[in-house]
Predict the structure.
Amino acid sequence: MYRPKIVENLGEDEWIYAGHPACHGCGAALGLRHLLKTIGKKSILVVPAGCTSIIAGTMNAATFNIPFIHTAFGAAAAVASGVAEALSKKGMDDINVVVWAGDGGTYDIGLASLSGAAERGHNILFVLDDNEAYMNTGIQRSGGTPRGAWTTTTITGKKEEKKDIMKIVLSHHVPYAATASVAYPLDFNRKVKKALGIKGFKFIHLMAPCPPGWRFETHMTIEIARRAVLSGAWILMEYENGRLRLNPPSSNMLDKRRISLEEYLMMQGRFKHVKRELLEELKRDVELRWSEIKEILEKQGKQ
Amino acid sequence: MGEVMYPVTEPGEGAAGKTGNWRWQKPIIIIDKCVKCGLCWVYCPEPAIYLDKMGYPHVNYEWCKGCGICAHECPSKAIEMVSEYE
Ligand SMILES: Cc1ncc(C[n+]2csc(CCOP(=O)(O)OP(=O)(O)O)c2C)c(N)n1
Ligand code: SF4
Ligand code: SF4
Ligand code: SF4
Ligand SMILES: [Mg+2]
């Protein structure tokens, strides 16, 4: 019996069944596959309305082989809070309560319940599955849609910048908050494991490209997720008790060792209208985020 | 009063039916070129790739949707996508 190291590390148990309804090349389906591998069967998945409500199954079969709760669109973190408290009263603290919510279900309609759960500090892991629009209802813009991106409700490109959800979450002084990408499953796996080992409200923001929503061919999902990181548009990092650390490969990119932003954006139909001026603005958005990070790291270094 | 029937779905493959029927292109793994890195297995969103005892990958065509991610991610170009219509 031979197994590649990465297969050994991620584990061969699958808690998601093939033949599910996700589109060809769905980043969210891959993210769910790796999330479930890591949390295992002693877990309850809480999911608000979104693509995953559909991926979860039909009359034919249920896709996930672990307990799964469908919630109203804005309520995932509130439902998970209740589940976590009930389990705790029953002495069943060894069961992981995990929210998997879309960007719409997190940045927008789910923000109040997320804030409540984070402030009360319930023992849950909240995973934000970010495909940067309301995909399940036909690609409408959300607070997580980046500036410039075409959606069916921003046909000339979104004018506003992507909301900085990490700052909102960190303002609750949560013990653990991180970003991740479907192109880096070992990093995601490590972060989920670490989060499960910490008591309280944990947050992981996973970037999961969507071929029909971002307008790219189905084989490019991982390539695009990787380019998001290599261009610096998506930064892999984690905050433990408020202390920031960059993770590879983002940790080598502070001094601009990055591919150009065009190499990420121009692979996607949703950015194909972007011309010089807007491109410069999008580059400034990225630089601003990096300079903020630099500042935080410098401040930490002095402490 | 008669018995009330509830529709209960059990976990299992094929929630969306035989998703292999969605394919317009098909991944063919050329075992001679495979270096057993496991990346096609890692990145398949279904999952529709399984490994044999020796660690070689194989595609389960019942469920594979033909997205092409495995072929694109393979570092040794051991997976070819061929049309289902030729
Ligand atoms: C209160 C309410 N408003 C609207 C809807 C319709 N709705 C269902 S899913 C969805 C979009 C979900 O977007 P997101 O959270 O980003 O998840 P994705 O579909 O992208 O995975 C909407 C608007 C709903 N179910 N409930
Ligand atoms: S619309 Fe996008 S996120 Fe939703 S199932 Fe399809 S690929 Fe996945
Ligand atoms: S083509 Fe897509 S669905 Fe089929 S085996 Fe490759 S990655 Fe999996
Ligand atoms: S990605 Fe290519 S080389 Fe690696 S295991 Fe799959 S077929 Fe073999
Ligand atoms: Mg979304």
User: Anything to note?
Assistant: Chain A has twelve helices and eight strands.
